[in-house]
Design brief:
single chain; six-stranded mixed β-sheet; 6 helices; 6 strands; globular
Amino acid sequence: MAVSGAGDGTGGTPGRGRRIILWRHGQTSWNVERRFQGSTDVELTETGVGQARRSARLLASLGPDAIISSDLKRAARTAAELAALTGLDVTLDEGLRETYAGVWQGLTHEEIIDRYGAEYTAWKRGEPVRRGGGELETEVADRAAPVVLRHVEKLPEDGTLVVVSHGGTIRTTIGRLLGLEAHHWESLAGLANCCWSVLSEGARGWRLLEHNAGTLPEPVLGDDD
């Protein structure tokens, strides 16, 4: 879904500025079962590997300059598919892991609501909640966003960084880079497995060009009319 406008670099034109592609890992068995994974190290399913291979072919055509990834297996395996096509090394960083959610981890969505309904509802309202006794969303952003920015600084002019991570971590990182207040981060819809979001560097900071995309970005013409 394109959410930005002309001259922002989605068409691959020179002078677009640096670009960040935040790519969620492929499907796991816990995704299928709707279990909260958090920092639990769950492998990709065969379907997830296939998703990663398909998406990697698309993302490779964008000519990434660097790949960084969460060190959890589901993200690292996804990143490896892109590395195989581009010849780039993958830098693994635990700062890109999914939110640690304590006793919520391993529970299904229904079990969380049944056992921790008040906590879940408060989180959905945008209140700062340590889900399951784990991390606050702002703490996730505090560890993940600096990792992304450190690697962005190493890019060439108009370079592209691919960040392979997790739904919650990607959402909080986007929110932080866009300068949104934390209670608005939930307004960013979740990413499907192996879909991605694209941020581009502009004169006023980072802009969200694509969100929950699964196809190559298209230029958006006349975004002010």
